[in-house]
Amino acid sequence: MTMPHRHSAKDVLVVVDVQNDFCEGGSLAVPEGSFVVPVINRLAGLFSAVVATQDWHPADHQSFASAHSRKNPFETTELEYGEQTLWPDHCVQGTPGAEFHPDLETERFDIIVRKGFRRHVDSYSAFFENDRKTPTGLDGYCRERRFERAFFCGLAGDFCVFYSAMDAAEARFEPFFIEDACRDIDMAGSKAAARQAMRDKGIAIVTSETTLRPA
To answer: How many independent structural domains does the chain possess?
Structure first.
């Protein structure tokens, strides 16, 4: 895969879930989560199109361990669409934890795609909720804008960013995973597994420096 020219109208930067609850001190903090913010701000200033996603859960969301008796965070349960990891309550609509990190330059975002707002289904991917049937609308937006390449960054690299990049490949966009603009939960080897799955899918794993280098 060749690196694109900067500011190409065919490229979109997708900033995934850089929210307070996923950063230090948050209820589902990703180690060094806030470290992605300056990298993403620099990237956003050099892309002509930037999309952000925002986890936006109701307080009684079924992916929360608190919604299930005798279940603890990081255990699993069966929901209508299959196995679901249960999480601490996080990114509840209208709470400070659901807000973007205060240093993130949100004025650069063209649109914000909210996901996970349906009580009965979680949403990792920027494109589909976890039932794999319910679209977020991002696919249609990207096609209307005629994007061809999608560059992914944010939190967490081994969950929401990973699933977004994989779905972009399925949707026949050319996806890039920006390694130094992501941080991972790394639960039970999930980081290594995600990277291998992306390589197997043909997704380019790059850095911010190579991403911004003109072809």
So the answer is: 1
